[in-house]
Specification:
Blueprint: H1 5-13, H2 19-35, E1 39-48, E2 53-65, E3 69-71, H3 77-83, H4 86-106, E4 112-116, H5 125-136, E5 145-150, H6 151-156, H7 158-171, E6 174-180, H8 189-192, E7 197-200, H9 202-205, H10 211-226, E8 230-234, H11 239-247, E9 252-254, H12 264-271
Parallel strand pairs: 2-4, 4-5, 5-6, 6-7, 7-8, 8-9
Antiparallel strand pairs: 1-2, 1-9, 2-3
Helix pairs in contact: 1-2, 2-4, 4-5
Bound molecules: ligand C2E and calcium ion (3 copies).
One calcium ion binds next to loops.
Length: 274
């Protein structure tokens, strides 16, 4: 179950007297976490369900907190966003995503890696200057990275987002709209923004036995086709869901049916060493 932001503030305030101090604590802890590599990226395979080939992975961050143990993103991403210290996470994730792709290439594997970027990072020009610098050393790296952004973030800040997404695409990155269909209902931005991929949210995929949810999934796939975009479905847990999706011509998917998110080592062992 999702916890509220206040739960996390309280969680961080346990040994501290007030919420402001708790917010300061998480900022300095995230900064340290970046410096000391306390984060870890788990990889979940993205699969072509027609050929049964793994075509890439989504990187999902975890935090090995020195005092609080293993933290999933819902325990710290919302707080990191609200304090602005999300940049430490995002910078670390980019650095490590680049390393993962370099390592894959050294092993002869051409796969894509999707990373999640928070809404508010879209306004961080400094971050994007650093990313630009990092990929300037090897521009081909960008073409292997898909940046996943949630729909609501795009709609809230469309003029700014438009410029930024165009810049990122010019660098070679692919852009995916995450949780498509969940957030805001404005579709007009699809014609105004240049994106590459629509990602169908798990909330629709796991209810496809209901006619209306199936209709939404079918519509998103149709929309993607009409806009010349790729489509990928997330949260596939059953063979039947996979069959339904492929009958609707959605060929890419990820979910527990194929694999839970696993460590980079495990991923490489399982999907690279053939
Ligand atoms: P998301 O981007 O929508 O990622 C999908 C989430 O669904 C992941 O949870 C994944 O482990 C989970 N999942 C994948 N397949 C299945 C399935 O078949 N069934 C079910 N029930 N769940 C499945 P996770 O790893 O806990 O991540 C939660 C959210 O945290 C992500 O949602 C994303 O919004 C955010 N997040 C993760 N990593 C990062 C990051 O590096 N940066 C930022 N800003 N956000 C991140
Ligand atoms: Ca995602
Ligand atoms: Ca998603
Ligand atoms: Ca989500």
């Amino acid at each position: 179950a999702k916890k509220s932001l206040m739960d996390d503030v309280v969680f961080y305030s346990q040994d501290i007297s007030d919420d402001a101090a708790a917010l300061l604590t998480i900022s300095s802890e995230l900064k340290q976490a970046k410096a000391q590599d306390q984060f870890e990226l788990l990889l979940q395979p993205q699969v072509n369900i027609v050929s049964n080939q793994v075509v890439g992975a989504e990187a999902l961050v975890r935090w090995h907190h020195p005092k609080r143990g293993f933290l999933t993103p819902d325990r710290f991403i919302p707080l990191a966003e609200s304090t602005g210290s999300i940049r430490f996470v995002t910078e670390w994730v980019f650095q490590h995503a680049i390393r993962i792709i370099q390592n894959w290439r050294e092993q002869g594997a051409e796969m894509t890696l999707s990373i999640n970027v928070s809404a508010m990072e879209l306004s961080n020009r400094k971050l994007f200057n650093r990313i630009a610098q990092a990929v300037k050393l090897d521009p081909t790296i960008a073409s292997a990275i898909t940046i996943e952004i949630v729909e609501s973030a795009i709609v809230e800040n469309i003029e700014f987002t438009k410029v930024l997404l165009a810049d990122l695409r010019a660098m070679g990155f692919k852009i995916a709209i995450d949780d498509f269909g969940i957030g805001f209902s404005s579709l007009s931005y699809l014609s105004r923004l240049s994106v590459d991929i629509l990602k169908i949210d798990r909330a629709f995929v796991n209810k496809m036995e209901f006619e209306k949810d199936l209709a939404i999934v079918r519509s998103i796939i149709g929309l993607a086709k009409n806009f010349n975009l790729s489509v990928i479905a997330e949260g596939i847990e059953t063979q039947e869901q996979a069959r339904t999706l492929s009958s609707l011509n959605c060929t890419k998917a990820q979910g527990y049916l194929f694999s839970k998110p696993i460590s980079v080592d495990q991923f490489n062992k399982q999907y690279l060493d053939k």
